[in-house]
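Structure in, sequence out. Go:
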């Protein structure tokens, strides 16, 4: 009985050990109505500010940049806000 269990364990470990490892793929631009991220490699090729402004404008909001990781593999993060900081206007009111 122990030989069968040991052989099964070796077979399972061998199968899992020989399977290729695959990391998840993340698109260069990803976002929703609250904000998003832009890959730094994409930001060097296109105007990242305009991409973020266009994205937030689809939801009727304005963009607020949060952080920049200025190296290969880094991201530029932004949030979409109803009104800009320091604005004297009242926030937009939506009825659902």
């Amino acid at each position: 009985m122990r030989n069968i269990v040991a052989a099964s364990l070796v077979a399972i470990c061998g199968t899992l050990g020989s399977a290729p490892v695959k990391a998840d793929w993340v698109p260069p631009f990803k976002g929703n109505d609250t904000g998003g991220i832009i890959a730094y490699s994409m930001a060097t090729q296109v105007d990242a500010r305009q991409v973020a402004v266009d994205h937030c404008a689809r939801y009727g909001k304005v963009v607020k940049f949060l952080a920049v990781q200025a190296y290969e593999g880094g991201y530029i993060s932004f949030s979409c806000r109803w009104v800009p900081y320091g604005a004297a206007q009242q926030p937009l009111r939506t009825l659902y």
